[in-house]
Please model this.
Amino acid sequence: MSKELETGKVPVDILNRIVLDPINNNKHKRKDVVIRPSTGEDCSAVDTEGEICVLSTDPITASGSNAGYLVVHINCNDAASAGAEPIGILLTALLPEHSTEEDLSDIINGVYKAAGELGIEVLGGHTEITAAVNKPVVSGTVVAKTKGRNFISSSGAKAGQDIIMTKWAAIEGTSIIANDYEDRLAETMDKAEIAEAKKLAEMISVVKEGRIAADFGATAMHDATEGGIFGAVWEVAECSGTGLELYADKIPVLECTRKICNAAGVNLYRLISSGTMIITAFDGEKLVAQLKESGVNAAIIGKITDGGRYVIAGGERKELVPQEKDEIYNVFK
Model:
């Protein structure tokens, strides 16, 4: 009997065996495809004989509100993590039965708000009301281009480099919980704290830090989506074939995030964190200084090593392992 899959990202071993291995073992390969799928690699790249075209796709499934706004930013974040400039996005919106015109309008208004902030176009897509979903599912595919054919993959981390993160942990997860569970949070938090958490969605773009890090000479960049900070750092090491040491006590965390995660019963380090970029580079202190000068909070949170993947917290050293699903699916359980 076939094993039933749990909610959330497909576990890495199953993903490799059923999805990625057949793709990469396929004999039919084009010479103009220069980056193919692998664990932790969010983008593919195609050589157009003039520039590198970067493509990435991601859905929003865990947010009951703000889905249109989020889907544009998370897809453009993947492109920015490859050192590419987003040009436009294609969208598919699947709405459940009994959805209203207002529901669709809210999604599209969010899409165009985000597109305006990033200076990109909506290139097309598909919109449908269907019994196949019980809440809105919005998926995007971003089209981007590199600068001087300079593609930065998640697999470029090198032993001895610093691991840098931007902004704060669990930005997206904090915003989602604040928007979708305001009544529950009101039992332990005041209105100002919840309002602060909701506004974190405005920090979700990593396009700015992507440009700074690419110009600096970063060799690997990765947007911290499902799996949070711990998941993103592990994926960079897995993709690069390296080890790592992660200093949990040095990870920047907002107080409203701590309070919300405590109330919701979730691990903030493993909570979806779009808006946070993981970067590997030599001379990390210099890069952190440049980011802060540009108004982007940043910190060194670890080192890339030759072997072994560990997280150090409170003086205790433990092996860092991938999780099967993001903490967003455990909220208030």
